[in-house]
Design goal:
alpha+beta, Alpha-Beta Plaits, six-stranded antiparallel sheet, four-stranded antiparallel sheet, 14 strands, 28% helix, 22% strand
Amino acid sequence: MNEPLEITLKTLTPLWTGGVETGRMDRVHETGILGSLRWWYEVVVRGLGGSACDPTGHSCLYDPDKPNQGICDVCRLFGATGWRRRFRLAINDADVQDTWSGGAINVKPPDRNRGWYLPAGQMGGLRLQIVADEKIKAQVLALLQFVERHGNFGARPQLGYGLCQIEKVSNDPVASYDWSVLVGSGRVDSRLPDLRTFTFFTLTFEPERGDWWRDVPGVGALARDNRYRGTVDALLRRGLIPITPALKNVLRYGAQWSSGALPHHFFGTLRGEERRRGRIGLSWAYRLPDSALWQMRGWAYPPQTGESQQREVAQRLQAVLGKPETWLQSLNIRYRQAEAAIAPMGAFFQPLSTAQAQQFMHESAIVEVQG
């Protein structure tokens, strides 16, 4: 009997999948998880040289008379008009609670007028159930392993939401999925996220003091604000510090850019009718279990600009995030030990070949979990 694949996830940072009420998450919505999985699968497929339709339109339409039945490689797994998704995802036994009680918190570094508003989201554990044939189960599991290691589940990844850890896999496929180079144009479209242009980065550190977070711009002020004292206590109990706004502030406003439009291209913007999604995700700081160590991680891909401006952004990221001492100095964190890692190439925006992207996907599937 083909038993459903079951994956138990534990949140590392708040999960956000939206809800009926604006600004509040009422439960974990399957559509929010599926949307993020699809986005990351598009990234992977493009990196492997395959076809992925423009996510703003999802223009694929099943037609048996067209080449490949009119379906791109992503829609072939996730579905399109006239072509159903190749797997069913259900969320069972979701033991999650609001990260804190109350509305969004405003993390405002000293030199910012407005700052960043962060909703509570939810944290805890949940079990994903995947119903599909053995090959598709292996494919979805491999994608989940990649997202666990490098990406985010759910929405608002640019604000650090949705980092999760796979704690258990049950009824796993007989054989692992073999990521293959796909047949397609193989060209990199700078308008769309492509694994071959991505950089992933991680910082692990041991702070000198238990209250190190008080020195992080905008974060320490939360504890001095009567509105947020209960929230700070809840975050500390969870081993979680929302440092994302402080780091975004340093990266975006801590340097003079050659063009005023460049930071809008890279960090995103919401100005009237102009909506531009950021091309960098930065996590909150989360304490590692049974350890004095804390960790942050993120990802980035180049803005849709000229090569000289892409190099400018890469140099800025390298200057701040390339070494643990510069990363922590930017946040006013004193530390005993720290280590930074940049993958796949050790520096920002170093392009991969399709074969290198394939190897990176194979390495991402090596995850130790309880069977």
